């Protein structure tokens, strides 16, 4: 395994594996035995960066979520896992009532929700301190200042380490960080967005959240990342939910001329290296100039093995240039 640092403050920064593991479907779609086997193998391979959320996976059983955090709590207890494993969770997108969704009934990012939901997450995970806590989606009702102060209060109390943000417009991330900096408070240091080698069109409804915000790391977000060396991008759905091996899964917003060109480059590099396309995508993210940590989900140990092997796949400068240039 290889590692990189997330965060800049010596008090809160952490060394995490360059491949993160998504636990979104653990405890719901993926059964406990398989989930534990995947988690055990990931840790055995040196992985220490696991991702969940307080709302995973509410859509599976029409509840409010929490199964993933609860499963991770049981796994931590049964294995005697301590703070060597970084578990990141999120709040803000938990539906307020069963049978509803974050689309129109999300808990949001008020100071009260931040305090109470973080506490529930700590209970489910069995953790005194959340290593990394994200704002999951935008809240257009609560003033950013309140959200910034709400998160910072938990850091000050020692119940949260690092702060992160997901699916927010780049300008909102910048504004929240500026508010925090001006007040001498900790701000978001980890940015979590959908990011893969194939790129979606951003001008079709499929690529937008229902509120019109964009979950994908587009050019604006990437340029922000380039300008702020202390930030890390955690790239969710790097394997496009399995679409590289099952093209029928490719969402409609990837239907544009750039997709065949980038797929051709990926396949060429896969042939040259003897790796799979999935591995080339992950290696391209891990070894690039920008600090990107791919966050892949898996439903079997075999898929995890394939993804773990990408950590040792070194692409040449020429291969990387071809992958970057294809469009
Ligand atoms: N911040 C957010 O809003 C947000 C949104 C979505 C996800 N996430 C996080 O990101 C994590 C990963 O996202 P994701 O599950 O959407 O996307 P992903 O990692 O791109 O896709 C995971 C799926 O791809 C398939 N897969 C994985 N490895 C494979 C391999 N080696 N060969 C063939 N197929 C493979 C599996 O599908 P099958 O199981 O069908 O075989 C697996 O369930 C989640 O667990 C969650 O923690 C965050």
Automatic annotation (TrEMBL):
Span-the-membrane segments of this chain are: none
Domain of life of the source: Bacteria
The segment(s) forming the NADP-dependent oxidoreductase domain are 19-326
Q: Which Pfam families match?
A: Aldo_ket_red (PF00248)
GO terms under cellular component: cytosol
Sorted alphabetically, which InterPro entries does this protein's record hold? AKR_Detox_Biosynth, NAD(P)_OxRdtase_dom_sf, NADP_OxRdtase_dom
Q: Which PANTHER family match?
A: NADH-SPECIFIC METHYLGLYOXAL REDUCTASE-RELATED, OXIDOREDUCTASE-RELATED
| UniProt protein name | Aldo/keto reductase
């Amino acid at each position: 395994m290889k590692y990189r640092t997330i965060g800049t403050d010596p008090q809160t920064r952490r060394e995490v594996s360059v491949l993160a593991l998504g636990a979104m479907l653990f405890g719901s779609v993926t059964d406990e035995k398989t989930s534990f086997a995947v988690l055990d193998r990931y840790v055995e391979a040196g992985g220490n960066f696991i991702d969940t959320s307080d709302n995973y996976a509410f859509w599976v059983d029409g509840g409010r979520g929490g199964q993933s955090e609860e499963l991770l709590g049981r796994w931590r207890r049964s294995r005697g896992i301590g703070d060597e494993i970084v578990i990141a969770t999120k709040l803000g997108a938990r539906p307020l009532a069963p049978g509803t969704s974050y689309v129109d009934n999300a808990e949001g990012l008020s100071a009260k929700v931040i305090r109470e939901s973080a506490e529930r997450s700590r209970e489910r995970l069995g953790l005194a301190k959340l290593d990394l806590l994200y704002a999951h989606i935008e809240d257009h009702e609560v003033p950013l200042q309140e959200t910034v102060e709400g998160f910072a209060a938990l850091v000050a109390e020692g119940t949260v380490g690092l702060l992160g943000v997901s699916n927010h417009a780049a300008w909102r991330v910048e504004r929240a960080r500026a508010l925090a900096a001006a007040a001498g408070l900790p701000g978001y240091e980890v940015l979590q967005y959908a990011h893969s080698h194939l790129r979606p069109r951003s001008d079709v409804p499929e690529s937008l959240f229902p509120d019109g915000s964009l979950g994908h790391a587009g050019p604006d977000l990437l340029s922000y990342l380039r300008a702020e060396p202390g930030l890390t991008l955690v790239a969710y759905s790097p394997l496009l939910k399995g679409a590289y091996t099952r093209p029928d899964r490719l969402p409609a917003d990837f239907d544009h001329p750039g997709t065949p060109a980038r797929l051709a480059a990926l396949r060429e590099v896969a042939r040259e290296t003897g790796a799979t396309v999935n591995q080339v995508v992950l290696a391209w993210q891990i070894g690039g100039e920008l600090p990107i940590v791919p966050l892949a989900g898996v439903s079997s140990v075999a898929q995890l093995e394939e993804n773990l092997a990408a950590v040792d796949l070194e692409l040449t400068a020429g291969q990387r240039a071809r992958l970057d240039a294809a469009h």
